[in-house]
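dumping this here before i forget
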Amino acid sequence: MEIFEQNKLFGLKDDNGDVVLPAKFYKDFIEKIKNLPLQELIKIKLVDIQYDLQPNGMYVFKDEKDKMGLKNYNGEVVIKNKYDMIRGFQTNGLADVSKKDKWGLINTKGEEIVKCEYDVIWLFDLYNGLAKIRLKNKYGLINEKGELVTKCKYKYIFDFQHLNVQDGGLARVETFSEKWGLVNEKGELVTKPKYNYIDVFKQNAVAIVRLGKKFGLINTKGQEIVDCKYDNIYDFGPNGLAVAGLDNKWGLLNTNGEIVAEYKYDCIERFQSDGLAKARLNGKWGFINEKGEWNENIWRR
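structure:
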């Protein structure tokens, strides 16, 4: 038998390359059973079809009171029926379980690494191994060991954003005083909650922020690269330019916060695929290019 991998999970193929067990199991389980006779592997496949085996080779079963437990593929009880719900195991080997409307976590051995004490536990982030939790309407973060990374103290924690695979990411947080900040994968505040709003980061690693009624820009280090002085900043386009308004006039900013077109236009519309944006200057319509150059004589076909 040959082990194959797909989406971080593993399965078995025979010598002809035909799939005997689909790639939905943890590697340690596949390693454990790969040398079993083919007829035993087929039994496991039948058990999987009937009960939907979890990645660790176990399946959920219920008793007459609808309490849930776990059995292994041989039908042996690993966890007695004591949970109201057992959700599917994630790729990190953890599954959510609930008792009396409270949620905790178990590992592949059925050990409870987080007691059922939280109102909600979200899926773990694949890149940094953190999960959002909620307790009494306050949000926090835990790691894959079940340890608190951030106490439940925020009004809300948004999903982590990852601008590259190596990046642990940043998550926007909102306090109960309705101030927004940023935390990293260690739960540390990169940006103290002081803004009235923080938009999502784009691929240019810049986010629009609002302080009071004014808008500015921050980078992924939480540094304010453009002061909150603009009346509005519209989203950055694929060309890395954003339309920004100041004193009822409009101009262009790049992702470094540099002014590409001065604030003198009555309006600037979105850039099109030809690299031009329709604009009005002193009541006349024309076009502005990506260098901020104005031409009222360009005819767009």
